Amino acid sequence: MVLQKNTGRRNQRKSMEQEWKLTVPASPEKISLLKAGDVVSLSGCILTGRDAAHKRMMEYLNKGIALPFDIKNQGIYYTGPCPAAPGKIIGSCGPTTSSRMDRYTPLLLDLGLKIMIGKGQRSPEVIAAMVRNGAVYLAAVGGAGALIAQCVKKAQVIAFDDLGPEAVYRLEVRNFPLIVAIDARGNNLYDIGPRQYRQL
């Protein structure tokens, strides 16, 4: 993973939040530098997976069957892409609510998953597994699926194609804009942000 700090400063910004250019696959050492509230521009290859794909993954693992793709040091984006229009790489691919994957996530983190991308809060069990395994949760902007699709340079179904849009895709993304929602120490922007604004 390549992690590059963007040294440019935003006008009128007084917080300690930083901006990073992040390339996946990821390593725990680089992920540990990210802090809740930091801005991330993500490039590289990530997987997709929603409810049905996660359920299928658990069925495989519970039967002792290896997953048909490697998740170690990888990232999963919680999305189900819309069909691509003629001449397009992919259709709209906005984030789905991450909590729907919470029951499946701790095991995947224990198996080496390092980055999750979605929207909304995560359960205490997921956060504990993130801290235990040095993983990070990045938030994408809900309702911006068409804009996010412009960051996708390649898209390929790699597993569970019978699930249609909920199949597992490998996406090559460039400059995918994200926010560190929960860092590898368990700091949670969904808790920190409201507290900071109450102090203003």
Short key terms for the protein model shown above:
28% strand; alpha/beta; fumarase; 6 helices; 24% helix
- Helix/strand/pairing category: alpha/beta
Order of helices and strands: EEHEHEHEHEHEEH
| Total number of strands | 8
Low-confidence stretches: 9-14
- Give me the number of helical elements: 6
How far apart, in Å, are the first and last alpha carbons? 37 Å
Radius of gyration: 16 Å
By CATH, the architecture is named Alpha-Beta Barrel
Counted up, domains total 1
CATH superfamily: Fe-S hydro-lyase, tartrate dehydratase beta-type, catalytic domain
Strand content: 25-35%
CATH class, please? Alpha Beta
CATH topology: fumarase
Query: What's the rounded overall pLDDT mean?
Result: 90
**Rough shape?**
globular
Spatial order of the strands forming the largest sheet: 3-4-5-6-8
Query: Which percent range fits the helix content?
Result: 10-25%
Major β-sheet annotation? 5 strands, mixed, barrel
